[in-house]
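REQUEST ID: PR-0412
SUBMITTED BY: lab tech R.K.
PRIORITY: routine
TASK: structure prediction, single protein chain
INPUT:
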Amino acid sequence: VYTRQTKHQADRKPDQVQATQFVRHDARVANELGRLYLIGFAVCLVLGHGKEPPACLIQIGQAYAPAVGLISHCRYDRVEPYPLVAARVSAVRVSTGVQIMSDQSRRRVHRSLRHHFRRKTKPGDRPGTIVVDPEAPKPQITVIAYTETDLVDCRVEQPSELAALLEKWPVVWVNVDGLGDADTLNRIAEIFKLHRLTLEDVCNVHQRPKIEPYEEHAFVVVRMPHNTEGISTEQVSLLIGRNYVLTFQEFEGDVFDMVRQRIREGRPVMRKSGPSYLAYALIDTLIDSYFPILEQIGDRIETLEAAVLDNPDESVVSEIHAVKSDLLVLRRAVWPMREMISGMTRDQSPYIEQSTHVYLRDCYDHTVQLIDTLDTFRELAGGLLDIYLSSVSNRMNEVMKVLTIFAAIFIPLTFMAGVYGMNFENMPELKMPWAYPALLLSMAVVGFGMLAFFASRGWVSFGSRKRPPTD
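STATUS: complete
OUTPUT:
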């Protein structure tokens, strides 16, 4: 492991530390790295006497210990008496190579390490207890309110401004990016009269796709895919009310730009319809965002299949496991979505209009198509590993066959050389002038004769193999 700390640029904030890290993507190396960090940090605590530990040790601990799940819940900016530990390392990547990561990439790494987090509420807590992630970004509220002819598209600084918009406009879309402030979330919940259990599910971002009807709203949970630094999913919570759609996202940035564009361009169907159609448009766009990712996975599977058949090596195995892991992430997100959409069309909720059910059935068909594609790709990915093992075994058999043929040819030749290599005086062939060339000729005849025999039986072939034609 090599770590180099680069100099701060003039336009960088003083609390941002950039580093380049070279790390083998191997679980054993990562575990040993975490152990070494803990040992080194303990030594600094004992021998440092309040001094600052080496910057290299701090960077290694902040970058890699959370990645192996050893001290992922440790808040380094609260450790004393080491002020340098409060520096936020924005260059984090556990992979082979070098990359300087921005704040946006750090947010993606936070998303990719989500499987390390668990429920934040303690067992036995009162239902509806709100516990936010301290590392989550602060809420950013945007509003799009419209009628057939008018439109308001703005950013809201205070949640109290939302009440006036709800009273004035027939359709209001309120989008909240970030779940890092419990006070802001509680104020939004009071304005929209959200149930405490609903707000708890919004903050606990490990929910599976579902729909839950309430008296004041319908609560829908879906998962939005991301294909940055590995495939992951982000929870998106939708609340459908009388004249509003309220969405909560973990981070800024989504796939809803086309929906916003349709509203701003004044599309008649979108402008004339109510909140339930807007909710359908958001869900449909989110479901369609899975198809490009599946196409990329399909291309990866085709490339892996060609690599397995032509030149299988150990790197193919890790790539196959990566594909299977990505498919598992997508399947966990898509499979419950079918039941959720079916529940939206089946339940007689007053907040989902009857005219929207036709469009939701189209979403249901897309979800079934996604599930069928995922199951097909999972079978293909599982078969690739079997093909790899068979290819390696066949290649080993070819090598063993060649070695066996050489050994079989040289056995009689070794016997002939051994017989005439004995030091006996009464061997008349040794004194004949033509004995040596006759022995070499006999050995050549025996060797080529055995090769011809092996070729006639199909045990050995000469020349390149013909490969089947490819499209």
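NOTES: The CA atoms of residues 368 and 392 lie 37 Å apart.
REVIEWED BY: pending
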